[in-house]
Design goal:
By secondary structure, the chain is α/β, with parallel strands linked by helices. It is 37% helix and 15% strand. The strands form 2 sheets. Strands 2-9-18-17-16-15-14-13-10-11-12 form an 11-stranded mixed β-sheet, sandwiched between helices. Strands 1-8-7-6-5-3-4 form a 7-stranded mixed β-sheet, sandwiched between helices. The two termini are 34 Å apart. Bound molecules: ligand NPW and potassium ion. In the N-terminal section; belongs to the NnrE/AIBP family. In the C-terminal section; belongs to the NnrD/CARKD family.
Length: 479
């Protein structure tokens, strides 16, 4: 793909981590010659700067000691040529400079770019460029560098980060020290997974991409998921064509969770939805009379897509051996995942299952399944999801900002939709219902998970600003 593009949600995008990007960079430099890529990178950054801040009186460019700083120096040189007023804060050591960055420093000086240690007072129409650190960020920033990051974050002007917001890890989307909070990020040569998961989505802002005239030949490490294909329903179809979902959960005091999952499955298109509550009280009155209430023992598991866990409490554990052995297709959520984490015998049964299975843990549930901690899961969400998928032979949906969908033997996908409004009770039950609905309609486990997660997030993204997002309304909004 040539030229610069904003990352849009209408297609999938390949993602390459630091190691793959370094290999591509070496190949590209071998083919194009020294300094060519950095010149292209700086030109792309300068063009984007102009487009983002056409009325800027000043563009302040914070340049670090490596090649990321070199990109910034190139951008400064172009802005200077175009009659703008760039001003550079440079952190390098001339005696330790890489050749490309040294060449760009010489060019910026020759162009008459002003250098200063003090940050000018920027106005909202101005622009700050973060060219401090990119792929080579190796440790938490301290001292003057940390102060510069703080100044960028406090600036009244928007911040454009080159390649990565400084401090953000390209592979994991984590920051283990001070990090730049950008409004825009121009990712160069490849798109990095860390821009789209963990804290990456918050730090990167709008992501732009310039391949620097290279085609990424390396296999992608992950994918930024695109929208699911739209499927029209054949006129000659009936409720049996779209599959039967059963929700098993709803222990005493938690029946609402089972109803939410059932309602979500129903509205996402399942042909028939049964709710089997573990609470033996009277059927809950809901606004979805289409839900059919059954006793758990009445379910013909071998013919059903089962969403298991939703509000199941500790009681769900007793049902898991039979569900794992018999359910035609299975979504395991919440209490079912906790029961699984606590019982290695159940884990063996899960590994022995041959029917499609999707696990939908949030980071704490994933940590319990892995025997690790939430912090360890969040430190590398892609790896955590992939490890779980391989360990259990199932599709795994690791929820959170930049939800990861992993399947055994496949590169993981990061979901681009969704926002913090989903952080409200019951939305996980709704997601389980969506996944079950797509499984029941005939999608593979991996497709069903990706489709459901994208849809769940897209509904939240389109939610009217002044209207409360509740789980029951989210379930009803599916179509
Ligand atoms: N070569 C090319 O043609 C192209 C390169 N491109 C660009 O290059 C970027 C990668 O460049 P890079 O490898 O030089 O890494 P970069 O992020 O600049 O940092 C390394 C420097 O920072 C230092 N350092 C690290 N952490 C630190 C800390 N916490 N506090 C202080 N210092 C710290 C580290 O020092 P050291 O660890 O060695 O002591 C080293 O000096 C990439 O992201 C893209 O923007 C693209 O435009 C494509 C074309
Ligand atoms: K940067």
């Amino acid at each position: 793909m040539r030229g610069m593009h904003p990352i849009t949600l209408d297609r999938a995008w390949p993602l390459h981590g630091g190691a793959a990007t370094r290999r591509l960079e070496a190949q590209a430099i071998a083919a194009a010659g020294p300094h060519v890529l950095m010149r292209r990178a700086g030109l792309a950054a300068a063009r984007l700067a102009l487009a983002l801040a056409p009325h800027a009186r000043q563009v302040w460019i914070a340049c670090g000691p490596g090649n990321n700083g070199g990109d910034g120096l190139e951008a400064a040189m172009h802005l200077q040529h175009w009659g703008r007023q760039p001003c550079v804060r440079w952190f390098g050591d001339e005696h330790r400079l890489a050749p490309d960055a040294a060449a760009s420093l010489a060019r910026a000086r020759a162009a008459g770019v002003p250098f200063t240690d003090a940050m000018p007072e920027l106005q909202p129409q101005d622009l700050a460029i973060d060219a401090l650190l990119g792929l080579g960020s190796a440790r938490p920033a301290t001292g003057d560098l940390a102060a510069c990051i703080a100044a960028l974050n406090a600036s009244a002007a928007p911040v454009l980060a080159i390649d990565l917001p400084t401090g953000l890890a390209a592979d994991t989307g984590q920051a283990n020290g001070p990090a730049v909070q950008a409004q825009h990020t121009l990712s160069l040569l490849t798109l990095k997974p860390g821009l789209f998961t963990g804290v990456g989505r918050d730090l990167a802002g709008q992501v732009w991409f310039d391949a620097l005239q290279q085609c990424a030949t390396a296999q992608a490490d992950a994918t930024l998921a695109g929208p699911p294909p739209t499927r029209t329903r054949a006129h000659a179809s009936h409720k049996g064509s779209y599959g039967d979902v059963a929700v098993l959960g709803g222990a005493p005091g938690m029946r609402g969770a089972a109803v939410l999952a059932g309602s979500a499955a129903l509205h996402a298109g399942a042909g028939r939805v049964y709710v089997a509550a573990l609470d033996s009280g009277p059927d809950l009155t809901t606004d979805a009379p289409e839900l059919m209430w059954r006793a758990p023992a009445e379910l013909a598991l071998a013919r059903l897509t089962v969403a298991c866990g939703c509000g199941g409490g500790p009681q769900i554990a007793a049902w898991l051996p039979q569900v794992l052995a018999e359910a035609a297709q299975l979504v395991l959520d919440a209490d079912a995942l906790n029961a699984l984490a606590a019982d290695e015998g159940l884990q063996d049964r899960l590994r022995q299952r041959r029917q499609p299975t999707v696990l939908t843990p949030h980071p704490l549930e994933a940590a319990r399944l892995l025997g690790s901690s939430t912090a360890a899961v969040q430190a590398d969400r892609l790896a955590a999801a992939q490890t779980l998928a391989e360990r259990f032979g199932a599709v795994v949906v690791l929820k959170g900002s930049g939800t990861v969908v992993a399947a055994p033997g496949q590169a993981p996908a990061i979901n681009p939709t969704g926002n913090a409004r989903l952080a409200t009770a019951g939305t996980g039950d709704v997601l389980a219902g969506f996944v079950a609905s797509h499984l029941a309609a005939g999608s593979s486990a991996s497709e069903a998970a990706r489709h459901a997660v994208y849809q769940h997030g897209a509904l939240a993204d389109a939610w009217p600003a002044g209207q409360a997002l509740t789980a029951s309304a989210l379930a009803r909004a599916a179509n």
